[in-house]
């Protein structure tokens, strides 16, 4: 079998990172290298030509997932012609939706990877990338009236709980209540 060109090697690496980003959000970082490479359509042996270790891939996959989240925010801003609060509300509505709940593999890495980041203290680069991604997202969610960390915690917690009870009417209720809270739709009294 012939050598892979540099361009093909870059494309293969990109495919592995994108696949890992999706699988890690869907199944957690414990996905095996063999399963990951199979999902990417590549051989297991090719992994170590691209990455020094699985931890190196986790680092890149976490950064990639947060880059996708940043693109989601950029798209929301563009769709709302730069009106930040409208873009934030659209993002909150999409985040706290059944579609996002049911599609962890393409959803927010802050929600999907929180348990893995909390359990695994052996990969400081992935933790740094995760922490920076969370801080960036929280800063983007902040308004003059609402703290971004509070908004993110509400969103992330609601999605995590809704996913945990997804086969129950409670799941939709959690999403609806969190969305209403962040939208100011709940009335006192």
Summarize the helices and strands and which ones pair or pack:
Layout: H1 6-27, H2 33-40, H3 47-50, H4 54-79, H5 84-95, H6 98-102, H7 109-119, H8 124-141, H9 148-164, H10 169-183
Describe what you observe in this structure.
The chain is mostly helical and 189 residues long. It has helices at 6-27, 33-40, 47-50, 54-79, 84-95, 98-102, 109-119, 124-141, 148-164, 169-183. Helix 1 crosses helix 2 (33-40). The longest helix is centred in the middle third of the chain and has 26 residues, at 54-79. It is globular and about 60 Å long. The model has no long low-confidence stretch (mean pLDDT 92).
Key terms for this structure?
189 residues; mainly alpha; globular
Low-confidence stretches: none
Total of helices: 10
Radius of gyration over all CA atoms, rounded = 18 Å
Q: Residue-averaged pLDDT, rounded?
A: 92
| Run of helices and strands | HHHHHHHHHH
Helix content: over 70%
Which structural class best describes the helix and strand composition? mainly alpha
The N- and C-terminal alpha carbons lie at a distance of 73 Å
- Strand fraction: under 5%
Shape, please? globular
Main beta-sheet strand count, sense and barrel state? none
Q: Give the strand tally.
A: 0
